[in-house]
Amino acid sequence: MATAGDDRLRGGEESHTDEDSLVTTCGRRIAVRCLRLGRPDRPVSRIALDVGEDRGGDPGVWAALTPEEARGLAHLLLERVGAVENPAGGARPQGGSPSS
Predict the structure, then answer these.
(1) Burial classification of residue 50, based on how many CB atoms lie within 10 Å of its CB (0-12 exposed, 13-18 middle, 19 or more buried)
(2) Residue 7 — very low, low, confident or very high, per pLDDT cuts 50/70/90?
(3) Closest CA relative to residue 73, chosen from 63, 84, 88
(4) What tens digit of pLDDT does each residue of 35-53 get?
(5) In this structure, are residues 48 and 64 in contact, taking their beta carbons and an 8 Å threshold?
(6) Which of 38, 50, 55, 85 has the maximum number of C-beta atoms within 10 A of its C-beta?
(7) Which stretches are tagged as biased composition: Basic and acidic residues (predicted)?
(8) CA 21/CA 38 separation, integer angstroms
(9) Contacts of 45 (CB under 8 A, 6+ apart)
(10) Which of 4-18, 52-66, 77-91 is least confident?
(11) For residues 63 and 65, what is the distance between their CA atoms, to the nearest angstrom?
């Protein structure tokens, strides 16, 4: 991970809109983007998560994930959402991912 202002992330990302990010209740913007690096004939593509600075101005961080890693993270997030929304182990909310 590196700081959110790292030139390696900024130089290789595509343009973005508010549709590919969200702002948390604590004020951090989390952007999800495609990151393309390397030579045009052998590009390296990743999914970049850019967590912006907090309300106090402390810098954020970013991570570049392979498609497989991004799917794994998505699965873990959906699993945890289900656990938070249904702590007693009741029925999963619509759109939830089954546990493995």
Answers:
(1) buried
(2) very low
(3) 63
(4) 999 999 999 999 999 999 9
(5) yes
(6) 50
(7) 1-19
(8) 25
(9) 34, 35, 36, 37, 67
(10) 4-18
(11) 6
Instruction: Using CB atoms within 10 Å of the CB of residue 91, give its burial: 0 to 12 exposed, 13 to 18 middle, 19+ buried.
Output: exposed
What lies within 8 Å, CB to CB, of 69 at 6+ separation is 47
Instruction: Quote the mean pLDDT of the chain.
Output: 80
Handedness of CA 8, 14, 15, 21 (dihedral sign): negative
CB 79 within 8 A of CB 97: yes
Q: Which two tokens stand for residue 25?
A: 């209740």
- Type of residue numbered 25: T
The 2-3 sheet, strands edge to edge:
2-3, 61-65, 42-51, 29-39, 21-23
pTM of the model: 0.64
